[in-house]
Amino acid sequence: MREEHEHESTEGSPDRRGLLIAGITLLACFGLVGYGILDTDEQPKPAAVPTAEVKYEVTGTGTAEISYLAPSKTDTTTVESSVTLPWTKSVQMPLGKAPTVTVVLDDKGGQASCTLAIQKKHVQRATTTGAFGRATCSAETQTAQE
Fold first, then answer.
1. Three-state DSSP class for 47?
2. Is the Cβ–Cβ distance between 78 and 100 less than 8 Å?
3. What sections of the chain are H helices per DSSP?
4. Beta carbons within 10 angstroms of residue 138's beta carbon
5. pLDDT of residue 23
6. DSSP one-letter code for 103
7. Cis ω before 50 (30° cut-off from 0)
8. What is the pTM of this model?
9. Choosing a second label site near 135 at 20 to 30 A (CA), which of 29, 95, 108, 110?
């Protein structure tokens, strides 16, 4: 008769094992959601910036120092010293930046011309001669896109 009494007392109460499993499952779900929200290892990727192909070219005779703007995190000018002419360099420049190339002849002089092309379209040319002659070519990258 004792078995009947135990059976009657658990009939109206919920199954504790089922509640325990449901509780553990719920905690696991909250843990995964929390991990997804708090996980900061993956940063959103920055949007791609549209670029234009820029070709710098310096022709002429002699030796020169050439400085040009190339895309970088710091937007600094790259300088190449004692360059024997002719010289060319192509870079991808973000739109809105002004690509610039400057040539300075050495003390022996000579003659040099810089040219600047954006998206294969010639946009500027400058010429210099003599000792320490200087020429600069610059333009906005957006002008070639219009």
1. coil
2. no
3. 2-11, 16-38, 142-145
4. 15
5. 73
6. E
7. no
8. 0.64
9. 95
Distance (Å, whole) CA 101 – CA 67: 6
Here the tokens at position 42 are: 């993956």
Rounded Cα gap, residues 137 and 81, in angstroms: 18
Cα 24 from Cα 26, distance rounded (Å): 5
- CB-based burial label for 71 (10 Å; 0-12, 13-18, 19+): middle
Contact of 31 with 85, CB cutoff 8 Å: no
Sheet strand arrangement including 121-129: 87-94, 51-61, 111-118, 121-129
Regions of the chain short of the pLDDT cut 50: 1, 7, 12, 143-146
Which residues touch 27 (CB under 8 Å, ≥6 apart)?
none
